[in-house]
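Appendix C reproduces, verbatim, an entry submitted by the partner laboratory led by Prof. M.T., so that reviewers can inspect both the input and the predicted structure.
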Amino acid sequence: MIDFKNIEGIYFVGIGGIGMSALAFYFEKGGYTIAGYDRSESRITLSLIECGCTVSYKDDVNVLQDLFGDISNKEKVLIVYTPAIPLENRILSHFRNNGYRLYKRSEVLGEISENTDTLAVAGTHGKTTVSTMIAHLLKQSHIDCSAFLGGISKNYDSNLLLGEGRYTVMEADEFDRSFHRLKPLMAVVTSLDADHLDIYGDQGTMVKAYNEFCNKIRPGGTLVVNSRIRKEIVVHEGITCFTYGLASNADFRAFNIELCKDYYRFNIKTPATIINDLHFAFPGIINIENFTAAIAIALMCGVTEQEIRKAVILFQGVRRRFDIRINWPGLAYVDDYAHHPEEIRACITSLKEYFTGRKITGIFQPHLFSRTRDHADGFAGILDELDEVILLPIYPAREKPIPGVTSELIFNKMSSGGKRLLNKEDILGKLDVSKLDVLLTIGAGDIDTLVSPIEEKLRKERAR
């Protein structure tokens, strides 16, 4: 148990991360002095500074405020870090070597989870979208909630939502087995595709970790599982399990899906009733499946059918999740966080569905050497479905280079004649707007820093 008594400040090593920043915002609202380090400036770090937090981009203990840098104050502060921060980080080493109280982000989130009715969403992909959908349904109802999200909700322009309700929505991150810290009342598992094999070694071990997460659900709690993976999930005694999806045997099922001009119309079958004629103005049948999971949880929390109906049509999505930046006749630009072959497959499928028959150019930045090594064939296969592909160098994140593992590993496996290898800094100069129809940027690294400059270039050159 983390003791917050007599704590004046909290320092976050890696404060600019989407999960870390949500915690920083949360504790800033609680009246603590908040400071932190991150490698580079971002929209998130600027937002933190605007709220009164102190952010440094220099890995140097000399820039620490006295509250955090002076060892005599170490009993007054807590240090929160993410495993993505390398061990040689000077600031983190200073805290560790001098006996400060250090906690992983997952430990702090777990502490919050124990003191609220947590609704946790796990899965190798889809968890950010589903958790944001759940939070939106609850916020737009009489139930209300708080939420720690893995992305920026476009409805609320934040990754932290605070409310008066009894529920807290959390993304359950499988990296470093972080989700084992949570003790949810209800949980969703969206998918079990092999990922983070640098942590788990193989998919079987990863699935066991998911089942251990499911065992963390409180007695009398509820588990909602994608019907495609139900056979791989162990449901423990005292837990009620429902399935969701598009399959005819799913407990919560979307059906009669119809793509209209700029929205979907569909129905939801539940164990108790049928909700007819929902309207959803967001691309991709995969997102109807995602909303089915969110609706299942919302109904079990007491959200009414009429509240769901109104909230579904108002959902705007998550920044960097099928984020449509430009949608003009003859020129569109979409940005997506996808970094696993199955996530990219879902994105491209939705893109082709939404922009039927149009030429699609993709810019992909692989994320992690280990993931590139483990899934090179999968990446190559799905990227070949695009008309043109630009591959950027691998974003290493927390990893050291692996000999022989570069973007060329994917490039050489691709059969597309419209493939190129470029450096990130060359993209703006090499993009010929006159030859673009639909442009897609994909990746979980720092490709997001290209999004605004690309959008600005497209808008400026199209206006000529």
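The two ends are 60 Å apart (CA to CA). Additional entries are available on request from the coordinating office.
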